[in-house]
Amino acid sequence: MSKDLQTAFDLIAIDCDGTILDSGKNVSAGAHEAVAEACANGVEVTLISGRNYGSMEFIVDEIGIAAPIIGGGGAFIYDVQSKKTIEKHPLPLPETRELVRLCRKEEVILVLEYVHNAIQERSFPPGKRPHPKHGYQRHIIPDLLEELDKLGEPPVKAMVLGESQTLKMVFERIQRLGLFDSMSFSSSSSIDIVPSGVNKGSSLTALAQHLNVPLQRVAVIGDWLNDLDMFRISGFSIAMGNAPDEVKAAADLVAPENDHSGAAWAIREILKRNQSAG
Prior knowledge:
Phosphoglycolate phosphatase, alpha/beta, 6-stranded mixed sheet, HAD-SF_hydro_IIB, Hypothetical Protein, Haloacid Dehalogenase-like Hydrolase, Chain: A, domain 2, 14 strands, single chain, magnesium ion binding, 9 helices, 5-stranded parallel sheet, 2 domains, about 20% strand
């Protein structure tokens, strides 16, 4: 997309982990106030994350998000006010079952994400379990294959967790088997798997259409490689200071790190540009 940096923005989409959350998985300092300033100036703010809604709800409540949010790495759009799913894209069940078997064999953690929660067989290693405050809605169940049959509903996203080298081998194995074609490393220790054709860019395009906001009037803030799709389709993109160099190079602007109020800085920078454009 050709970007006119003199354009005012009506919608700001913000990634969660590494962006609006600090390294301790708490809402970063100043984010609530910056979101309130944006809303007071007529700019809608949404979250866009690989998390399920149950794992995003504490952020929604703490910073006062009213617009529909995007979760599952783009697999669903959820209206936080009506508590209804606007759009959802499930993973194919046969391939998901094969993924369960593969992850068992490789002894990595597989998390199957639904809109409101997630299920997994293997527990987190000692010291790695997320703190309940951080809102991770994951349920340890004895048998994922049996649970899939019982639920009768496919997940919207799968996440594979493990050591970096092991995950690289698992990633290659999934590719060789042809199970899924929409995979990405959301960190060095996790692989996100979403339905074919789904990513943060496609889902943000759908949300912008739902809100009747042209893409050139959408600004985005993110920190990781899976944010690049939304960088490409937006009118303005800001990378966090803690982002990899590849992400920073793709952005229109670089903010301070997430542990130094980078999200609040980025929101206010967008509002400044709105004032200049107006």
